[in-house]
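Researcher: We're teaching a course module on how sequence relates to structure. For the next exercise, students receive a sequence and then see the predicted structure as tokens, so they can try to spot secondary structure elements on their own. Here is the exercise chain.
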Amino acid sequence: MQQVRPAAVAGAFYPGDRDTLAASVAGMLDDARARLAPDTPVPKALIAPHAGYVYSGPTAALAYAALLPARDRLTRVVLLGPTHRVAVDGLALPDAPFFATPLGRVRVGEVDPFVRALFPHLVDRADVHAQEHSLEVHLPFLQVALGDVEVVPLAVGRAAPTVVADVIDALWGGPETVIVVSSDLSHYLPYAEADLRDEATVARLLALDGPITHEDACGATPVNGLLVSARRRGMAVHLLERCNSGDTAGD
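Model: And here is the predicted structure for the students to work with:
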């Protein structure tokens, strides 16, 4: 077992300098808190983006600003994101007790052996996590917004939505736990086309209408698992924000 999974995309997807990163995330959270509707409920589950902060940071900040009122009770985050570099069957755990960012270490929460026994789809694969950005980019937000929380990081590969939903349900926890699914929406489309496609995708998410395709959301596999779990539980859905890189970075 490696002791620490080092930061792989610091200095690329987000600032690599500790002070610059801390100031950037704190500033985005402050701005987001001012934009957040005062009656926004504290969510049990979030879908938040994982592009570089210049593209999606302000929208991700809205998601984490919604958790700030529950900072004192939230101690555990189940974080699911798609795999971009290494394919895997099932859901991969990192086989390391800590993740590192420029802000310090994040504790990796252990999965109960009983849960592991129930789900052979849960595998230890350090190689899947080594260069994966979809989970890492959320960690600085969690560190600043929630402080010393433990994170159960799941890199989701080839898996049926019901399998992902069953794992989410097994890790659901109580009021101390929040579920975060990492996903962007469409990629490399002209602005108007991206806007229309993303609007349609978000409408389906609001209606808990899956499955979503990978052309519409790169994190479709964990998203679809969350949709199944949410339907089982009769959850309500609230849209915080939808944007694309043309709204932020201008490209």
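Model: If you want an answer key for the exercise: The chain has a mean pLDDT of 96. Residues 176 and 185 are 28 Å apart (CA to CA).
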